[in-house]
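Q: What does the assembled structure look like for these inputs?
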Amino acid sequence: EIVMTQSPATLSVSPGEGATLSCRASQSISSNLAWYQQRPGQAPRLLIYGASSRATGLPARFSGSGSGTEFTLTISSLQSEDFAVYFCQQYNNWPRTFGQGTKVEIK
Amino acid sequence: EVQLLESGGGLVQPGESLGLSCAASGFTFSSSVLSWVRQAPGKGLECVSSINEDGGITVYADSVKGRFTISRDNSENTLSLQMNSLRAEDTAVYYCAKTGPHGQRYFQIWGQGTLVTVSS
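A:
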């Protein structure tokens, strides 16, 4: 099973500032990496797939990068609606596995 | 509008069974790989099972193998999860999810989830 490790666990950011979230895979997953956002009480929502492709309608302030084992989600200029938990997920192998999540909170 | 709507959650005792359903609309159901993903209270996400387009291929997480059965009815646009021998650790919100197009196995669309509580 591929283990996905996210860092940091919590990120405190002021509105308008940028945030960088990291995700590491225990073995190479090529670019088969997705990012999801989950707001309290809601289902996860797809943000990024293929490590860097934005989902339909996603604002350009969200961007993804990386390949192999190291990946990054960058949010430039955080808006109020961006404060949430973010999960990465590999879909290179079964079982599909998720990171434990990074909570982006208001500083 | 693409939509997934889960139902069937509830409170059951350890060892009992429960069946979940997911009604789909707004996309070509028979051409989509579908999955069940669960989230224990305050915890992360776990993909417990997936099924291919015609139902001929199913996969399960080790944690549920032999206890859960995924199935689909392409004539009714419905995905199901039969859960037997339930344990306390199966307590979670269960989401139905549609994977991306062209064989891309990320979870493109999610339902709102249904809560399963296993407790005596």
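Chain A has a mean pLDDT of 97.
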